[in-house]
Amino acid sequence: MSYQSSVRERLARRIAGEIALSDHPGQTMRIWRERFRLPQITLADFLGISPSVISDYESGRRKSPGTSTIQRFVMALLTLDERSGGQVVAAFVRLMDVSLVDLNIVLAMSDFSSPITAKEFCKRLKCTIKSGEKLLDREIFGYTLVDVERAVKELSSDAFLKLFGATTERCLIFTSVNTGRAPMIAIKSQEFKPSLVILHGISEVDRLALELSEQMRIPLAVRKAGSVETLTRELRGIEPT
Fold first, then answer.
1. CA-CA distance, 64 to 43, in Å (whole number)?
2. Which among 64, 96, 128 is the end of a domain?
3. Would the pTM count as exceeding 0.70?
4. pLDDT per residue over 114-144, tens digit each?
5. How many domains are contained in the chain?
């Protein structure tokens, strides 16, 4: 078995496990379908079923899928991605193939059971938008709270990818920030980009950081008030509605 095939199997087990163990398996199926950027009709055509069946599972109108349904669903995601060039699986291979990040660098990390818009996420955390306000309708699937000073100094490019967890469609929140320049330069150098960046502890952002935000089309927000402990508590209280 090739290395990539091995990682592909690990990813398949991960997706199947998350669906099977989820309190809302239909929502979890939708999250993974959207991560693979597949319309319901494309997935339904491959599986030989009506798009309404996919919709019923995702909305909870149909009872939880059985093991065979989950297996077919997962294989469909992977096969359709492979047919279109394998970009999504390749991204996950990169994300999974790195060592664990030092817990003193990652202060908090979570994936949502259902996505939340960047606008709503910023509103919940009482952030001020500095750049990319028109892009805030995009959805995010989780967040990572990072000590930027240690991350910039200690993380290799591959280890930096681990900050994204299961998906790049998340918010990276950087604390211990001086101007915002360092984290934006670090993100600029990476192949994968987050959907939203929040800088904690400052009110004014470096001009270069703003320019990089605009170039990369990543919304940039700041949260001035509150300790890291308070921010962490508020993050843990966020659950999309």
1. 18
2. 96
3. no
4. 889 999 999 999 999 999 999 999 999 899 9
5. 2
The per-residue pLDDT for range 44-77, each reduced to its tens digit, is 999 999 999 999 999 989 988 999 999 999 999 9
CB atoms within 10 A of CB 225: 10
Provide the token pair at 116. Answer: 């939340």
How many angstroms from the chain centroid is the CA of residue 14? 15
Same domain, 122 and 140: yes
Whether residue 105 contacts residue 147, with contact meaning beta carbons closer than 8 Å, is answered with: yes
Which amino acid, one-letter code, is at 178? N
Q: What local confidence, expressed as pLDDT, does residue 14 receive? A: 85
Assess if residue 226 is contained within a domain. yes
> Both 118 and 207 in a single domain?
yes
Instruction: Annotate 90-123 with DSSP letters as a single string.
Output: HHHHHHHSSPPPPTTTEEEEEEEEEEEEHHHHHH
Is 241 contained in some domain? Answer: no
Q: Which neighbouring-strand residues pair with 147?
A: 175
pLDDT one-digit tens code per residue, 166-202 = 678 899 999 988 889 989 998 998 888 999 999 998 8
Look at residues 43, 74, 96 and tell me which one is the last residue of a structural domain: 96
On whether the CB atoms of residues 29 and 19 are closer than 8 A, the answer is yes
Q: Which two tokens stand for residue 37?
A: 């950027």
